[in-house]
Amino acid sequence: MSASEKWQPTRRQLLGAAGTAGLGILLASCAGPGAAPGGGGGAEGVDTSGEIGGDLSFAHWRGEDREAFEELIAKFVEENPGVTVEQDISTSVDYEAQALRRLRGGDIGDVAPAFRGDQFEQFVSAGFFLPLDDTGLTEKYQAALIADGSRDGTQYGYPYQVVYNVPIANMDILESIGVTEAPTHWDAYMDMLEKIKAKGITPIAFPGADAGNAGQLMNSMVMNLGPTDDMFARVQSGEYKCTDDWFLEVLRHYEELAPYIQPNAAGTAVEPAQQMFVTGDAAILSTGSYHIAAARELGAEFPIDLVPARTNAEGEGDYVGIYNATFILGLNSAGDNQATALAWLEFLSQPENAGFYGDATAQHTSVAGVEYQNEDLQRIAPWLERELMLAPRFQFLDTDMRNAVEAAGLAAMTGTSPEQAAEDAQKIVDERVAAQG
Description:
The protein has helices spanning 66-79, 92-103, 118-125, 171-176, 186-198, 211-214, 217-222, 231-237, 245-256, 270-279, 292-297, 338-348, 351-361, 375-380, 399-413, 418-435, and strands spanning 54-60, 83-89, 111-114, 150-151, 154-155, 158-163, 168-170, 202-205, 282-285, 304-306, 321-331, 364-365, 388-390. It is of the alpha/beta class.
């Protein structure tokens, strides 16, 4: 199936500076629009009565971070003889769908993260995450960046990563066509893609077969077209619909991208898309900054920067990009080694260790006082000072709704009319609204 064939299915929120030694992050933001109200699941505080030792399970979805965490684990074990830490790593899709079921028994995931939004809400409501206010860890984090790890004034987890959920670009290729910084409006964006294509290079590598990574493009596609910042929370509530004019405009922009993605984009997994980017066969990877480290691991040597999809007209648009504070680390209430779990979380919360993680994975962290040496982090640091929207796709607290809305973008990009793609998505949204009463 080729890319053109049908596939069915005042707003500054981030300020700061980061980079070389002597520079840290200082960011100001707020909780994501549409965060759900409600109480926690009744979990009590962390049981620190036991000794630090024994087996510990660290469950997560960041397979690309395995080696970085292994080095941190080795250091942690050296400081705490008698401890064994095992990583239990799932794909992001499997983790999002199955983590609560797999982890709640306590055999896996003494320490585990949650995605911002629906999964975090599930973990708290189910009593899976323990309250952390009395651990002394909250003060180790930048308060503005950990709001999405709290509920009703109680801190249940710490968003560890600050990532940019927007396309990343091979700047050598872009500079070869005269583009030295991200285009600021849609016409300029399309002109950039056309010039890349004229060089015989695929403009955008799009992993359509991986729903979690394919959906990231939706963030920047809607950021300046949504009628309100909480657009997807209102889609979920039924106030807005996928068939509304604003979302149809989003899907028409997706349709315009069809000539600029690789053949069989709907069947492309994330690893082949990364490989296209690394080898220079594609100029842009549509996912986000969290794949910069993976690109380096695969051998990418070119400069990398962010190129959000600016669907706004020239001179318009409130936002220039997207950020997300995610990978919300928490402690399993069912775990029987909570003292050691808390020690591991405290270890990860130390600036030195957070800095190592950031440098190794090319991701800023929310830990206070961190200094970075990674050149990629230094390059993208200026984005911290720009008008960024908190990733709107995570406003959905219903995964089926989110998947349906994001799949509409892929459908429009691979041959389905925007109107039909919108209707298909809205049908699923309506079904989920009805099912939830």
